[in-house]
Model the fold of this input.
Amino acid sequence: MNPLKIRKVLPQDLDCITQIEAICFPAAEAAPRKVFKERLSVFPAGFFVAELNHQIIGFINSGVTNESHIEDDFFKTMDLHIPNGDNIVIFGLDVHPNYQKRGHAKELMNHFIEAAKIDGRKNILLTCKAHLIEFYEQFGYVNEGVSQSEHGGAKWYDMYLELN
Ligand SMILES: CC(C)(COP(=O)(O)OP(=O)(O)OC[C@H]1O[C@@H](n2cnc3c(N)ncnc32)[C@H](O)[C@@H]1OP(=O)(O)O)[C@@H](O)C(=O)NCCC(=O)NCCS
Done:
């Protein structure tokens, strides 16, 4: 099998990304196409896709802030994006179900962490559900406990990774 190729997002990737997001997340949490379009146009440097045989099988996307926790509004609008901010916020990490459990999310995350370090960010912030806390801990993320986030009506945990 060909190796996974990780590259920056392109405008023609939008439909595929939106479809994968709708499969990976419940409707109340899934970002719609117009939100991905804005993220792509405002901060393409923080948006990576993973391809196998020229087919997108996953992606990771982000914004930047000086806040220490993610504001729910950031999931809806890049108005809160601060290009030179210290902390990079992961909005989502998705791998299509047909390609999960093969290490692809791990490769995407490691790629993302290295890019954030090169860009001089201080921390990576994310929120996740309880069943994924261990998944993120393997990269060194620290669990800060239940988040104030009410995104999609779910219960989230705040996690951060200090970069140095
Ligand atoms: C979470 C998700 C991205 C993981 O993708 P994946 O490609 O299956 O993950 P990987 O195969 O790279 O897993 C890497 C490692 O994490 C482990 N892992 C995967 N899911 C895990 C979980 N829920 N809890 C603990 N460990 C987990 C794997 O066993 C593997 O460990 P190993 O390296 O020791 O073998 C994928 O399940 C997904 O897209 N889910 C729906 C969307 C979502 O919830 N995204 C995250 C919230 S933003």
User: Anything to note?
Assistant: The CA atoms of residues 14 and 36 lie 7 Å apart. The longest strand covers residues 55-65. The mean pLDDT is 97. The two ends are 35 Å apart (CA to CA).
